[in-house]
Amino acid sequence: MNDPELRRLRTTDAPDVLAAFVAASDMARQGSVTDAQGALAYVERLTEAAGPHIAFAIVHEEQVVGVVGVTVDTGNRNGWFWYWMHARFRGRGWTSRAAATVADWALGEGGLHRLELGHRVNNPASGAVARAAGFVQEGLERSKLLIDGERLDVVAYSRLPNDPLPSVPRLPMTER
Length: 176
What we know:
With 176 residues, the chain is α+β, with helices and mostly antiparallel strands. The protein has a single domain (5-159), classed as Gcn5-related N-acetyltransferase (GNAT) (Aminopeptidase, 3-Layer(aba) Sandwich). Helix content is 26%, strand content 34%. The protein contains 4 helices and 7 strands, in the order βααβββαβαββ. It has a 7-stranded mixed sheet, with helices on both faces. Strand 3 and strand 4 (78-85) form a beta hairpin. The mean pLDDT is 94.
């Protein structure tokens, strides 16, 4: 099986984004995408030229199977880092590799000084991705999120340019 590659997300990816959102109920935390129009609106928001988002598609055999993004705070040169993977493609290590690649880019060519992310304590897979991508755990935000009537803690992470580089192999970035 070939490794995936990364490229910038584009509006023509909306059908693959919709497929990922309808494949697993946990995707609802990423946004409200339930139909083709919602998928296009989601992608348009992430690819808006003047917007704060930089989104990279994880592409395997011409299909977008995940997205890694940074929501940029230009004034502070910081970014909120986030990712998701289509349920059918989870567990292959691709999200970790993509996250490490995008984080390297953001802290280098992307010009950012600090990346931040957080994950719910009941989502240890997201924490494994963060650590594999070189993020350092900073703390616990108690009772931060209200999900289905339950308060959940969030584990907070960051990555700085001088942090040790992660050991996972990077994915190729293409312009295609």
